[in-house]
Structure to design on (428 residues):
């Protein structure tokens, strides 16, 4: 049994993960129907796979690669 | 719709305050030009890119906005924190309707936000949004449907070309998948994809696989307004949205001497795990600049390839699946080979 909530686990690890170069976000998601921690990266890399955990405080950690996020006016800022 | 100095965004909803004044709800970067606007500036419908001019096409004036905290990010410096990219513009009921278009919209949003049984105007449990089927109507992609894939999201959003000016947004909602929104959809109201159409979030940003949105409960509370939605009883809810997912994701490498080719085969299932034809699968190879797509045939299978590879391995990640009647449910992806049904790696043969 886990001794912590996933919200607390995220709060404890988010800043640490956001400080890793290439990490652009964190959150709470689903993995196989159960809650998991999510780390958003700009692009998958071996270095990120090495530096980010697969499990944190008993919760699985899912890594999502989606590029950088931009606002969405008609001609997106930054594109 | 938008500020005279921007291109175009979307009207999220008509909102009203305690005195029954009505406002356009959208993003700061749509109504207030990312902090550059002044209170009293015009709100144009259509937006300047679509031919709107000031003052002929004014439907309102900028009333209030949450200041965007933007700054440099990198080398150990965190970007400034934000909760929302939101603004309101004072309007009138004659200039501003409260429904999405009758021909291709979802109707009128419910004045009651999603998941607020206590009636305190805040989500009772934000984590209950996970997996929720949602929809939105936007200027560019019109009516689209998706699913809340992550909550309590912290995401760094780039507000300039080279990503030097960044805002860190906390406690956001992420909606899957690619195709849910695009440029011009900023400001759209995301509501539940059922007969109730309860407001969930305010769309403001996106990347290759996700749309990011501000929690609507926090946005409405910030401006002391509520959704000026339909007061008539909602129609009976439609049957649950039919979904599809990746049922198998395989990779194979073939050698051509000094180079090699990665061949990826994707099988799309419906909710009953039957093959789906006519599903367009989009994804990206590692190291590739652009996404690649294929459309499934009668066996539910399609194939993408990347040739002239010289690396020791390559991977392919599915970013989205679209279909004329089915909604992509990425959380249901599976792979009989033990993978997650989203990413597959292929070693050089």
């Amino acid at each position: 049994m886990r001794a912590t909530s996933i919200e607390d686990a995220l709060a404890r690890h988010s800043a640490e993960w956001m400080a890793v170069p290439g990490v652009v976000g964190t959150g709470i998601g689903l993995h196989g129907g159960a809650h998991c921690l999510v780390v958003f990266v700009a692009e998958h890399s071996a270095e990120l796979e090495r530096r980010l955990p697969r499990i944190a405080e008993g919760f699985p950690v899912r890594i999502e690669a989606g590029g950088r996020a931009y606002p969405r006016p008609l001609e997106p800022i930054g594109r | 719709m938008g500020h005279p100095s921007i291109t175009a965004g979307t009207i999220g909803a008509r909102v009203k305050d305690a005195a029954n004044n009505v406002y356009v709800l959208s993003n700061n970067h749509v109504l207030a030009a990312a902090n550059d606007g002044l209170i009293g500036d015009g709100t144009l419908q259509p937006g300047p890119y679509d031919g709107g001019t000031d003052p002929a096409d004014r439907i309102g004036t900028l009333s209030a906005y949450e200041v965007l905290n933007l700054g440099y990010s990198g080398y150990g410096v965190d970007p400034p924190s934000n909760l929302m990219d939101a603004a309101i513009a004072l309007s009138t009921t004659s200039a501003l309707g409260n429904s999405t278009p009758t021909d291709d919209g979802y109707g009128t949003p419910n004045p009651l936000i999603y998941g607020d049984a206590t009636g305190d105007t805040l989500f009772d449990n934000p984590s209950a949004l996970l997996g929720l089927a949602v929809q939105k109507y936007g200027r560019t992609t019109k009516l689209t449907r998706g699913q809340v894939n992550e909550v309590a999201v912290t995401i760094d959003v780039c507000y300039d070309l080279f990503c030097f000016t960044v805002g860190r947004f906390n406690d956001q909602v992420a909606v899957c998948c690619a195709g849910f929104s695009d440029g011009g959809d900023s400001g759209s109201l995301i509501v539940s994809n059922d007969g109730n159409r309860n407001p969930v979030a305010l769309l403001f940003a996106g990347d290759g696989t996700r749309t990011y949105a501000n929690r609507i409960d926090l946005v409405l509370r910030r401006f002391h307004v509520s959704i000026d939605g339909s007061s008539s009883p909602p129609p009976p809810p439609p049957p649950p949205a039919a979904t599809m997912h990746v049922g198998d994701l395989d990779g194979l490498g073939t050698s051509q001497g000094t180079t090699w080719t990665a061949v990826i085969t994707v099988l799309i299932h419906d909710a009953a795990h039957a093959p789906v034809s006519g599903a367009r699968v989009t994804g990206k190879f590692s190291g590739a600049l652009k996404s690649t797509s294929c459309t499934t045939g009668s066996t539910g299978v399609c194939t993408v390839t990347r040739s002239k590879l010289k690396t020791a391995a390559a991977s392919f990640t599915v970013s989205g699946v679209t279909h004329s009647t089915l909604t992509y449910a990425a959380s249901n992806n599976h792979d009989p080979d033990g993978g997650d049904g989203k990413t597959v790696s292929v070693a050089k043969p």
In short: Chain A touches chain B at residues 6-7, 10, 14, 18-19, 24-31, 33, 35, 38, 40, 43-44, 64-79 (CB under 8 Å).
